[in-house]
Amino acid sequence: MAGVTVRDMTLDDVPGVGALEQQLFPIDAWPVQMFIDELSQPETRRYLVAETSDGIVGYAGLMCIEPIADIQTIAVVPDYEGRGIGSTLLTQLIGEARHRGAADVLLEVRADNPRAQQLYVRFGFEQIHIRPRYYRDGVDALIMRLQLAEPETDGQHATEEGQP
Predict the structure, then answer these.
(1) Among residues 21, 51, 108, 152, which one is catalytic?
(2) DSSP label of 143
(3) Residue ranges of the alpha helices (H) in 40-128?
């Protein structure tokens, strides 16, 4: 991913992310205020941007309320697809979910977006449900889940409290 930096999204990024959101998801775009609201909840949210010398070329966000993490959004500018940006963003969100103690990571993906579905399957997500007509244009959402491994306990099995 030469020339691409991934970092936490800031309020200064919101106008640019909002413009990309309108361009990439014209039917289902989040209003700019939604990004502002999400960034105001760092105790349960983490948002990232991927940028190059051209500016922001991708972004992603996670909500985690134990034991579930939910990928709220993930997007890459079409001219930058196929460069590992989506994979990098997804890897960092999954890492954040683990860090926050999530047991499962959930997401919705459009039934007519096989490229995104393939990315999620490569990461171990499985389709667990369909939400009919979830998107404004009537397309179904596939609900996908990644089950995270139990956290390591320094090579020892955790014992019940009070047990040696």
Answers:
(1) 108
(2) E
(3) 85-99, 114-122
Check if 96 is active-site: no
At 106, the amino acid letter reads L
Q: Of 80, 82, 94, 95, whose CA–CA distance to 50 is shortest?
A: 80
27 Cβ contact list (under 8 Å, min separation 6): 135, 136, 137
Tell me, yes or no, if the pTM score tops 0.85: yes
Note if 108 is an active site residue: yes
Dist CA 104 CA 145 (whole Å): 7
Q: What is the distance between the alpha carbons of residues 100 and 81, in angstroms, rounded to a whole number?
A: 28
Model pLDDT for residues 120-129, shown as the tens digit of each residue: 999 999 999 9
Mean pLDDT of the chain: 91
Query: Tokens standing for 108?
Result: 């919705």
Give CA–CA dist 139/114, Å, rounded. 13
